[in-house]
Amino acid sequence: MTSRTTDVLLTAAAPAIWGSTYIVTTELLPANYPLTVALLRALPAGLLLLLIVRQLPERAWWGRIFVLGALNFSILWAMLFLAAYRLPGGVAATITSVQSLLVVFLASFFLGSPIRALSVAAAVVGIGGVALLVLTPNAALDGIGIAAAIAAAVSMAFGTVLSRRWQPPVSALTFTAWQLTAGGLLLLPVALLLEPPLPTLTVQNWIGFA
Length: 210
Prior knowledge:
Layout: H1 3-19, H2 21-28, H3 34-53, H4 62-86, H5 89-96, H6 99-111, H7 117-134, H8 143-165, H9 172-194, H10 203-209
Helix pairs in contact: 2-10, 3-4, 3-9, 4-8, 4-9, 5-7, 5-8, 6-8
């Protein structure tokens, strides 16, 4: 297998894994625990990566890391899981796909990137493509779920752009470890205060978390 083929397969795996969020949430995880699920997705992974990279951010970076952790993980995943619990996967996926269009305009504001007609058109076509693939005539709408999906898209768009603007002199793995840990730490008190303890987990639940 050539390196180019490997790169293509790895790149294709990312959206495929990301897209599995909806079916895993609804079919395998305990119902109605968006904050706890987001916490368990962020904090253990962040701590594990910290053990691997063995490097903490300098004090001057702490504020930015927590902002990025909130945008890229805390808010994003909490809202994404809330949307997945309350909306059909096709509806949630279509709404969150507007993130690519938001990035075009936010990158112009924060990074000075030009707004290209091709970029806007590609984002719009992408949103339409997602809608054609996953929306059905019987798609149910829920106000809270729609608001959560929009919030997830906005949070991810800001996080994506600011991650490019705030680039510490470390590896991508270290940068990710910091953000995951910060996002998980922000979720910890919120999940403990606002959600009850998890019920006894079934085999399906364990598979879903894994």
